[in-house]
Amino acid sequence: MDRIKQFFDDKLVPRQVPVDGTHEIHLAAAALLMEIARADSQIDAQEEAAVIMSLRRAFDLNDDALEETAKLAITATDEAEDFYQFTSLVNEHYRAGEKQALVEDLWRVAWADGAVDKYEAHFIRRISGLIHVPHSQFIQAKQRARPQ
Fold first, then answer.
1. In CATH, what number does 2-145 get?
2. How many CA atoms lie within 13 A of 146 on its CB side?
3. Which residues of 84-93 are buried (b: 16+ CB within 10 A; e: fewer)?
4. pTM for the full predicted model
5. pLDDT tens per residue across span 94-126
């Protein structure tokens, strides 16, 4: 969590504005979404757009903040030893419905390029377990996110 706070202290949050934890929560969600986008070893334009749309739906951020958060998320996941620093923030700050919405957004990002890769599906299942989303809600989120 210290690394996440440092990202925002250095890159996004002006020095005179105190960090209240909100930025770290945004970055944690963005990091999980971005990791899905690159689970198949590439981030294509549709997946990146799906990440931005998910962040826009979930948080009240302007376009510049959305783009910066997405960029910081890539760096954060590159430097992370594991996903505990992200999932622990989600567990601390998200209610059950918000966690289910995040899992649904993870599926939307995975579906963005037209197909869900086995690594994407595995990662979503793993994150869903780490943030304590029941399997029935995991399946519901997958079905809602599937393109028609």
1. 1.10.3680.10
2. 8
3. ebbbebbeee
4. 0.84
5. 999 999 999 999 999 999 999 998 999 999 999
